[in-house]
Design a protein that fits this description.
- Helix content is 41%, strand content 13%.
- It is α+β, with helices and mostly antiparallel strands and 616 residues long.
- The chain folds into three domains: 197 residues, Aldehyde ferredoxin oxidoreductase, N-terminal domain (Aldehyde Ferredoxin Oxidoreductase,  A, domain 1, 4-Layer Sandwich); 189 residues, Orthogonal Bundle (Aldehyde Ferredoxin Oxidoreductase Protein, subunit A, domain 2), CATH 1.10.569; 177 residues, Orthogonal Bundle (Aldehyde Ferredoxin Oxidoreductase Protein, subunit A, domain 3), CATH 1.10.599.
- The strands form four sheets. Strands 2-1-6-3-4-5 form a six-stranded mixed beta sheet, sandwiched between helices.
- β10 and β11 form a beta hairpin.
- α7 runs antiparallel to α23 and α21 crosses α24.
């Protein structure tokens, strides 16, 4: 079996499909996953494409190592033109779906067109069936999962949209295995616009035929041990991302009440450690020892008898502190409701927090909300808004467009309080007290997102290491603006390389956290039998970051648009004693541009494109 599998092309309009060899020349330059996707979309989606039209292209691509013997090799990367931002839509998901796809020797799935009626796909061996899904349309993701698992039988995995995607809420997501969400940028809305309810893959085995060399076992074992010996392994394995809210609150970076505050007075009530007594089973993704997922059961209270899955950090922030909600069981319920309905928890929570902020300011009135009282922490109102967002009802129909577009529709100066960058709702760290994450938000290719840059070295590295590798000890001072350009550049390149390999960033960048790609190069060499070094992987990462920038510049209406929203230039959003952020961000941004060899507007230089072989 070749290192890179085949490409499956499906045209839903024509009801045709073909299998082609993966283009080896592109594999050398871009590997798989995120890299192959952006190369293909850059060359096949012209300006003027409607993100919700049949001409948009939806891609699901495994990384180079996805489904192999490599640890943490579960990841699948999904891209299309985003209906939420109008830029490159991008999502990354774990679970077992990617490994199952690779077991069919499929590296990438490329979907074009639009079915005339709702359908789902069944992929098995060398065949594809386009099957009627009209009876599934309207089902939530858990109901659909249960039905299709029963129909497909053992050794199958499913990717599903819920009513959110069917109704084209612009931040709808795609769900696999109950709670693995391909969120952010509205890939579920794109799937819904194609009348595609689900994708079922039936494999021969849960791993590919790719095997490591004789000496590869030692490398694989060593990488696994690095993960498990991390001082943070036990906490992450035991509590998942939900266990880090108190940590963020202690640092003063916890987004609270639509970013009005940096700490939440009720953080102890929603910290993930309080969920331990409700855990009935831990589980994880393909070949991952962390097992950070958990199933829960509540045996008393208003949710007595409820079975649920444990939310992740960003979901806890978005539906908890951002909205001023201190009832932990309600946070879990709302997170699971979003998953069932197929909408992104981060964008949904941010949209609700934005609406609550406007309501308190009097910008939104009871007449605007249909009588819903949008007071901070009102869990019942939040549930109503989540359902309205999903089904395009009431004020939820406006919020389903995302906070940027919703602010334009609402008017009345609402834009001043809309937390987004490039149209994507901001993640859970408050920008004021963690400057590297703030810069990463600004320059991320998909908008105001932490995961697309993942600069966790800012709080894991020592000053000594920052001095040696980044040239400035202040790079790891959360409050300093100095040295953030090289820090974010390093994080973004490593991040992109991992997405091309199909490795999970949580163990790689939050547990091992070396950010040097040496271990990953050795692992890739051992598994594939081909020679890789860190320099080669860094070059791939840099190529991807630059090509994504070119893609976005083609579609952007405001140039690079690497800026914070207006709300963070208001005095009320600045913690006491802090200067307004506009005094800080421009030096960081220009330092990053210089490190990337981009001009002062954020455009890659011709010299850099020549170096990366991107002049085509």
């Amino acid at each position: 079996m070749p290192i890179l599998g085949r490409v499956l092309h499906i045209d839903l309009s024509e009801e045709k499909w073909t299998l082609t060899p993966f283009p080896e020349a592109r594999g050398e330059k871009f590997l798989g996953g995120r890299g192959f996707n952006v190369w293909y979309l850059y060359h096949n989606i012209p300006p003027g494409t409607d993100p919700l039209g049949p001409e948009n292209i939806l891609m699901f691509s495994c990384g180079l190592l996805t489904g192999t013997t490599a640890p943490i090799s579960s990841r699948l990367h999904i891209n299309a033109l985003s209906p939420l931002t109008g830029l490159l839509g991008s999502s990354n998901v774990g679970g077992d779906f990617g490994a199952m796809l690779r077991s069919c020797d499929i590296q990438s799935l490329i979907i074009r067109g639009c079915a005339s009626t709702p359908v789902y796909l069944t992929i098995q061996d060398d065949s594809v069936k386009i099957e009627d899904a009209q009876s599934l349309w309207g089902m939530d993701t858990w109901e659909t999962q249960k039905h299709l698992n029963k129909v497909a039988g053992d050794n199958s995995e499913v990717m599903i949209i819920g009513p959110g995607g069917e109704n084209r809420a612009l931040f709808a997501c795609i769900i696999t295995d109950w709670d693995h969400a391909a969120g952010r940028t509205g890939m579920g809305a794109v799937m819904g616009s194609k009348n595609l309810k689900a994708i079922v893959v039936k494999g021969k085995d849960r791993k590919t035929e790719a095997v490591h060399r004789v000496n590869g076992r030692d490398t694989i074992k060593q990488y696994m041990q690095q993960i498990m010996s991390s001082p943070r392994f036990e906490k992450l394995s035991k509590l998942g991302g939900a266990g880090y809210l108190k940590w963020a609150d202690d640092l003063g970076i916890l987004a609270t009440r639509n970013y009005r505050e940096t700490k939440f007075d009720a953080v102890d009530q929603i910290d993930g450690k309080r969920l331990l007594k409700h855990v009935i089973r831990s589980r994880g993704c393909f070949r991952c020892p962390v097992r950070c997922k958990a199933e829960l059961r509540f045996d008393k209270g208003k949710f007595n008898g409820m079975k649920a899955v444990r939310p992740e950090f960003e979901s806890m922030v978005a539906l908890g502190s951002k909205c001023g909600l201190s009832d932990l069981e309600t946070v879990v319920f709302l997170d699971n409701l979003c998953t069932k309905l197929g909408i992104d928890t981060m964008s949904a929570g941010s949209a609700i927090a934005f609406a609550m902020d406007l309501y308190e300011r009097g910008v939104l009135t009871p007449e605007d909300t249909g009588g819903i009282t949008l007071s901070w922490g009102n869990g019942r109102a939040m549930e109503t808004l989540i359902r309205q967002i999903t089904y395009q009802k009431g004020i939820g129909a406006i919020l389903s467009q995302g906070v940027y577009k919703a602010s334009k529709i609402i008017g009345r100066d609402a834009e001043r309080f809309a937390p987004h960058i490039k149209g994507l709702e901001l993640a859970g760290f408050h920008p004021y007290n963690i400057m590297g994450a703030t810069l990463a938000y600004m320059v991320s290719s998909r908008g105001g997102d932490f995961n697309n840059g993942y600069p966790s070295l800012e709080y894991y590295w020592s000053e000594g290491r920052a001095t040696r590798e980044l040239g400035n000890p202040s790079a790891v001072d959360l409050h300093s603006i100095h040295g953030k350009g090289p820090l974010v550049r390093r994080a973004m390149l490593v991040n992109a390389a991992l997405d091309c390999l199909g490795l999970c960033k949580v163990p790689a960048l939050s547990l091992i956290a070396t950010f040097d790609l040496i271990n990953e190069a050795e692992l890739t060499t051992s598994v594939t039998g081909r020679s890789f070094d860190a320099e080669k992987l860094f070059k791939v990462g840099e190529r991807i970051v630059n090509l994504e920038r070119l893609f976005n510049l083609r579609f952007a209406t405001n140039g690079a648009d690497d800026r914070l929203p207006q709300m963070f230039f208001e005095k009320e959003y600045a913690p006491e004693g802090k200067p307004l952020l506009y005094e800080w961000i421009e030096p960081m941004r220009q330092e990053f541009y210089k490190e990337m060899d981009w001009d002062d507007k954020g455009k890659p230089s011709k010299r850099k494109l020549m170096e990366l072989d991107l002049l085509e």
